Amino acid sequence: MTGPPAPDPGDEHDGRVVARSLEHPELFARLYDRYAPDIHRYAARRLGGHAADDVTADTFLTAFRVRARYDVSRASARPWLYGIAAHLIGRQRRKEVRGLRALARTGRDPVAAGWVEDTADLVADRAPLADALAALSAADRHVLLLVAWADLTYQEVAEALGIPVGTVRSRLNRARRKVRAALGADPALVGGVTEVVRL
Hints:
The chain is 68% helix and 0% strand. It is an all-alpha fold. Helix 7 crosses helix 10 (165-183). The model is unreliable at 1-8, 111-124 and 186-199 (pLDDT under 50).
């Protein structure tokens, strides 16, 4: 008798992976395999491809270094990793705002140009949005983009940024209101943050 089959490592919840990685550091690579592409896409959307490479690498390096502080009762490390990425992006706030202002001014989006064939119409729609995003405070922009581009729930955003859910709601409401006003959109006509912000 050989015993029960070994659990599929893909099914093992993240808290257990982090806990086991304390004795077997190589296991932390499972989190990288699960989440690195998503973290990279999010960072690329905010800072561009080259900076996204650095942010992604730094996110996982930081997570690895502080993994002993991770609450292993949490089944998903996704909010934790997005929180680290958002913090790293926040350090590059000026670069992000410069990129958004350049998009608003020139209509050229180097991020979209890499994966969209004809960006002319797309960019024409993005310029006012980029200007509106650049005008937001870093805290409001983090919340708005974690919801819109990373598809995090309010609870996950709260975990990622270490703030109460009520603060997430108020920042998101304020950010939506400011973006809608900047775009000249009637709030009754704009469905949700995805329609307003997803680029």
